[in-house]
Write a structure and sequence with these properties.
heterotrimer, A: mainly alpha, ABC transporter involved in vitamin B12 uptake, BtuC, two-stranded antiparallel ribbon, 13 helices, 4 strands, about 75% helix, B: alpha/beta, Rossmann fold, 4 domains, 6-stranded mixed beta sheet, 18 helices, about 35% helix
């Protein structure tokens, strides 16, 4: 009898470790860096983690979570960021008022989503291939638009101060990028796990034919998903441009792999391995803390990437091994 | 009292008092089966009775906790898949395990490919020739060399799969629900083949839900119930009804609990509906409270008609009206808006989402009802709990994933989805395929209840007895046309069967 | 032995199955599918030839032996990588998210190149450096294999994480600088061979021939396809599915190591930015399947697709068109090809 009980309880314990691998990893790196680098725990540093490391990646990863939820992926989030950035900068240079230019920037990003929507929902291409194609075409389009890939700078003078607000402004003391990220995260959480739209997206990702056989206009939802992804990504394009006051062609791709990584790390938080916004946000937080902490602890800059990679790898390994064990019982 | 046949010297396989536990659950509690050499031995039982556990044990995929396994007179402590194959026992699975982009030759020889002598290279010419020869000479099957598995019909794939097993010179062939994906004529072909194999000395173990098949094909049948064998009988001395009664331990008389409902006003009126190359000039009316049966061979147009109503196909001529109002349903979304509901045949692909919970499945078609800007999850739970109770869905809570439910209970979830939407016209496509008898009765009861509440129901089924039991009228489809209408209470199985197949012969004689 | 295994021939089946006419078979789907595949394959080849003809008319130098040799030589690194990826795609199935993909390949090449160049610069001989570079590739492949088959991480993520680690290690090793290297092997590889064609061109052709023979013409290759396309069927046929998947990642890792050595010879040292090769290689490998009759990835198809991209870049250079446009053409091509496949398939389902 005791033997039987033991054999039941061991998988239960490992499963709960697996479920909470992400939170355990977060706690571990937090304690580790607090110990290694005293500066890590300072308020200024933590704020800088949130503004410089966390905010933008969190928005991109939130967008990615929708695509992954729908059973797909969006490799062209960077393209949406770039197009938004290009449209924003161009409109500001053309002397348009900032709010209008920002709207134009959003529209620029959404163009990418529309293109994806036609490919994925209209023609029926698999999301990976469709968005990979978009990424390549988008790169060429940007090079055509910029004479072979030259950055577009905004002049130091003559640009309205409002332009810098998105990247450098604060509202009641809170930096705008962080505020925007919080709003996007909250909205995405409501949209994905508490709304009709989110439920359909989730069901599509799990078994699309059932959604169709349930009398739901599947294609419309799929199209909306990819347009939404690019719309959210476009916000990052605006903030990024406002922060660095320059548009650099194909620079948005820098977020891609970390956004995918954070989204899938986040799936380990859900009992059924589903993509979810809280998990994604914790995943981004983990990546941000590690990047900042490694920097502060004086480790060789190049070791940071190794450390981050190993960490992602371990969280995924524990999460997936645990899911495999759960599927077996 | 039932007379039970016990093991004898001529047995090729003897499983004796097998016990198998999974965690706390006892899957087999002393099951025995003795299979006589050169016979067709049926194995039946409800889902959960232990059939698949017993077969997996024989295949070497599980290890018995207690009991004795004897093959060819020799006792084995432990079977492995490899050992089982060496002993000459082969399994024909219900999913045809053939690679779709392979040629027939490649699929046949996968795992034991011939090489060009003295080289490490495949002898494709030999594979092609041998596979062509054996399929043609022994099965009368002629396929183009370039044909890929993906191009074959279900029956042809089945034959390729059987041939794969035959290449190993098997002593025992185990068929697991082989007819699940076959139309009747294809199944008949399979039965002839099985009889010939038996006459040639191969021992067959045949697992099926269809008791009629067991009665027609097997020499002996073992009935499993609750993890043990309740009887092993010579088929000649028993009947499908008796076997069915042994499986559920109750009289089979109440299998079709059909209430009497007086049909009301017209719900669905079909007028001269046609779809090029599928069906032509189909007209009928479905009334409130009525259960209408459709049947026909594969390709007869019956299935396509259901798909048309639900917006999965678009008719090329004719009209459909719901409650007197003409509708044009080009998509499932428009069909559901007109109160139509389809319970599709491929339940696990189209009917329920296996990785979603019971609640998420149940409310999927009626999310509007629960959406007030955000989803009212408490209301979702209440509605689901009501339906789980009403349909007697056996589940480990409403948050359990649907993949953890049995086939019958999954089907009930697929129906609950439409009850939650309060649909009025139900299109049920083979609603009891792969469902055990107890759940079948519950689904039949539910169909009766729906009719009593004023819904209109169309049941498409190739199980004629089932149709006669649950419907008021039956339309027989043949080559895209309704060839005859029957009143269920005044019709026999034979009459309908001869209409389904007899018309075939008449026409093919003319053509 | 395998060939001579006695076939089970039931006596009563020996007579042709008379009086048992086959259900009339509906030939349409088969016909439609094959016609679609044929159209796509023919179309793709036609586009390939069309592009060649266009360039040879507009740029007279294009169709000379020297130029073709150059293109082959310049395509060697991408070709070896794409072939490695193709092996993984065959063994893992063509669903790119859950199936076979190796995102660590380009980073693998970078690290292997860095290892090779660093050792040569440190005065080690070719033998040691070659072993170390190939060993690096194999280890990376083995880590991927373990992550996918033992830990059960989907390949897209497992190789993504490994990619990060490997790219980081390359930075640690090279401090993000160029490591120049020269050795006998490098000199031999970067020389010209018979007909004045670069040795790298011969390496690419030889390598393709070897891998194609193993994958397209041996039982091992056939089994790899079975494992990738229908693991349950492979399992039912008694094949060790996990071993095949693991093997495909290890083979791909080895390709990364080989490509690393080739890149050191091509660039006379190890350079940064190997990661930029990743997505073009993925596109190349995925495009390759349109050159096969069954629309599955093949080694020869991947070679054709690599050369197609190589000729495009070359042609654009000869015509003085910005070669950055190649990525756009590649993107459009993959969209066109995949759209065509999807639409044809959909039409045939109706």
């Amino acid at each position: 009898m005791p033997a039987r009980q033991l054999s039941v309880s061991i998988p239960t314990v490992t499963r709960s470790i697996g479920r909470h691998a992400l939170i355990a990893a977060l706690a571990a790196v937090f304690v580790l860096f607090a110990w290694l680098a005293p500066a890590f725990l300072s308020g200024a540093n933590l704020l800088s983690v949130l503004v410089n490391n966390f905010a933008l990646l969190a928005i991109v990863a939130t967008a990615m979570t929708f695509a992954v939820s729908a059973g797909g992926i969006d490799l062209s989030v960077g393209t949406a960021i770039d197009f938004a950035s290009f449209a924003f900068v161009s409109l500001v240079l053309a002397g348009q008022p900032i709010p209008l230019a920002a709207l134009g920037g959003l529209a620029g990003g959404v163009v990418v989503g529309l293109f994806n929507a036609v490919l994925i929902a209209g023609i029926g291409i698999s999301p990976f291939l469709a968005t990979l194609g978009t990424l390549f075409v988008g790169r060429s389009v940007q090079q055509l638009l910029t004479n072979g890939g030259n950055p577009v700078y905004l002049p130091p003078t003559g640009v309205p101060d409002a332009f810098r607000f998105l990247g450098h402004g604060t509202i009641v003391g809170i930096p705008v990028p962080l505020l925007v990220a919080a709003l996007v995260i909250a909205g995405a959480w409501l949209g994905l796990s508490r709304s009709r739209f989110g439920r359909v997206v989730l069901a599509t990702g799990i078994q699309a034919s059932v959604v169709r056989y349930s009398g739901i206009a599947l294609r419309r939802y799929t199209a909306a998903t990819y347009i939404l992804v690019s719309g959210i990504a476009a916000v990052v394009g605006l903030i990024l441009t406002s922060t660095v006051t320059v548009y650099i062609p194909s620079s948005g791709n820098a977020f891609l792999l970390n956004a995918i990584g954070a989204t899938f790390i986040g799936t380990t938080l859900s009992p059924h391995g589903r993509p979810n916004i809280p998990g994604t946000v914790l995943g981004v937080l983990l990546l941000s803390i590690v990047a900042n902490g490694l920097l502060l602890s004086g480790l060789n800059f190049y070791w940071q990437q190794v450390g981050t990679g190993l960490l992602i790898f371990s969280v995924l390994a524990i999460g997936f091994a645990n899911r495999k064990a759960a599927a077996r019982t | 009292m039932v007379e039970t046949v016990r093991g004898e010297v001529g047995d090729i396989i003897r499983l004796d008092a097998i016990v198998k536990r999974f965690g706390g659950a006892q899957a087999l509690s002393g099951a025995s089966m003795a299979v006589k050499r050169g016979t067709v031995h049926g194995l039946v039982g409800q889902n959960g009775a232990g059939k698949s556990t017993l077969i997996k044990l024989l295949a070497g995929l599980h290890e018995a906790d207690e009991g004795r396994i004897e093959i060819d007179g020799k006792a084995y402590d432990r079977l492995t898949p490899h050992l089982v194959e060496e002993l000459g026992i082969h399994f024909i699975h219900q999913d045809r395990l053939l690679v779709p982009t392979f040629t027939v030759g490649e699929a046949l020889f996968l795992g034991r490919e011939p090489r060009i002598a003295g080289t490490p290279f495949l002898d494709r010419a030999l594979m092609r020739r041998r596979s062509g020869e054996i399929l043609d000479r022994y099965f009368g099957l002629r396929l183009p060399h370039s044909a890929l598995i993906a191009d074959l019909s279900a029956a042809e794939k089945q034959i390729v799969q059987i041939t794969r097993a035959l290449l190993d010179n098997p002593k025992v062939l185990v068929f697991d629900e082989p007819t699940a994906a076959l139309v009747r004529r294809e199944a008949d072909l399979l039965f002839q083949l099985i009889r010939r194999l038996r006459d040639d000395g191969v021992t067959i173990i045949y697992i099926s839900h269809y008791l009629g098949e067991i009665a027609a094909l097997c020499d002996t049948v073992t009935v499993l119930r609750n993890g043990r064998d309740v009887a092993t009988l010579p088929v000649k001395q028993t009947s499908a009804a008796e076997i069915g009664a042994l499986m559920v331990n109750r009289e089979i008389g109440d299998l079709y609990p059909k209430p009497h409902v007086v049909a009301g006003e017209a719900l669905l009126a079909v007028n001269a509906l046609s779809l090029a190359n599928r069906y032509a000039n189909v007209s009928f009316t479905l009334h409130k409270g009525e259960v209408l049966g459709l049947t026909g061979l594969l390709g007869s147009g019956a299935k396509e008609i259901l798909r048309t109503f639900f917006g999965l196909e678009t008719a090329t001529a004719g009209s459909v009206a719901v409650k007197g109002e003409p509708i044009f349903t080009a998509t499932p979304a428009k069909a559901t808006a007109k109160s139509l509901a389809l319970v599709p045949e491929d339940r696990r692909r189209d009917g329920v989402a296996l990785e979603l919970s019971v609640t998420e499945n149940t409310t999927l078609a009626s999310l509007d009802r629960f959406s007030r800007g955000v989803l009212d999850r408490a209301a979702e739970r209440r509605a689901t709990e009501d339906l789980v109770k009403r349909l007697q869905i056996k589940t480990d809570g409403i948050e359990a994933l649907v993949k953890t439910l049995s086939g019958g209970n999954q089907q009930k979830v697929a129906i609950a989805k439409w009850l939650s939407r309060q649909s009025e016209i139900y299109l049920l496509d083979e609603p009891t395929v792969g469902v055990d008898i107890a759940a079948k009765v519950e689904i039949y009861t539910l169909i009766g209840e729906l009719a009593q509440r004023g819904a209109g129901i169309i049941v498409l089924s190739s199980d004629i007895e089932e149709l006669l039991g649950v419907t008021d009228r039956i339309l027989v489809f043949f080559r895209g046309q309704v060839t005859r209408e029957f009143i269920s209470s005044q019709t026999s199985t034979d009459q309908i069967l001869s209409e389904v197949t007899g018309a075939y012969e008449t026409l093919s004689n003319v053509g | 032995m395998l060939v001579d295994a006695p076939y089970y021939i039931p006596g009563s089946l020996a007579e042709p199955a008379a009086g048992n006419p086959q259900e009339p078979r509906n030939d349409r789907p088969a016909y439609g599918r094959q016609a679609a595949a044929l159209a796509l394959r023919g179309g793709s080849l036609a586009v390939f030839i069309g592009v060649l003809v266009f360039f040879s008319v507009t740029a007279p130098f294009f169709l000379t032996v020297g130029n073709i040799g150059n293109v082959l030589g310049q395509s060697a690194i991408a070709g070896v990588l794409a072939i490695g990826l193709t092996i993984v795609v065959i063994g893992g199935g063509s669903n790119v998210v859950t199936g076979g993909i190796d995102l660590s390949l380009a980073a693998n090449m970078g690290l292997s190149a860095a290892v090779y160049a660093t050792l040569v610069q440190a005065g080690q001989g070719d033998a040691v450096a070659i072993m170390a570079a190939l060993g690096t590739g194999l280890v990376i492949g083995a880590v991927n294999a373990a992550a996918v088959t033992l830990a059960g991480i989907v390949p897209l993520l497992a190789t993504l994480a490994v990619m990060n680690v490997v790219a980081g290690l390359e930075l640690v090793l090279t401090q993000n600088t160029v490591v120049p290297a020269s050795s006998e092997l490098l000199a031999a590889l970067s020389a010209s061979g018979p007909l004045g064609i670069p040795v790298l061109a011969y390496v690419l052709l030889g390598f393709t021939l070897l891998v194609a023979a193993a994958v397209q013409f041996t039982p091992l290759g056939l089994r790899l396809y079975a494992v990738g396309e229908f693991p349950q069927a492979a399992r039912a046929a008694g094949l060790p599915v996990k071993a095949f998947v693991a093997g495909s990642f290890i083979a791909s890792g080895l390709c990364g190591g080989i490509a690393g050595i080739l890149s050191v010879s091509f660039l006379s040292g190890s350079t940064t930015g190997a990661g930029d090769m990743l997505l073009p290689v993925v596109v190349t490998a995925l495009l390759g399947s349109v050159f096969s009759r069954r629309l599955v990835p093949t080694i020869t198809g991947t070679l054709l697709s690599t050369l197609f991209v190589g000729f495009l870049i070359n042609g654009f250079q000869l015509l003085n068109i910005s070669s950055t446009l190649v990525s756009g053409v590649q993107g459009l091509l993959i969209l066109l090809v995949v759209s065509a496949t999807t639409l044809l398939r959909r039409q045939e389902n109706i």
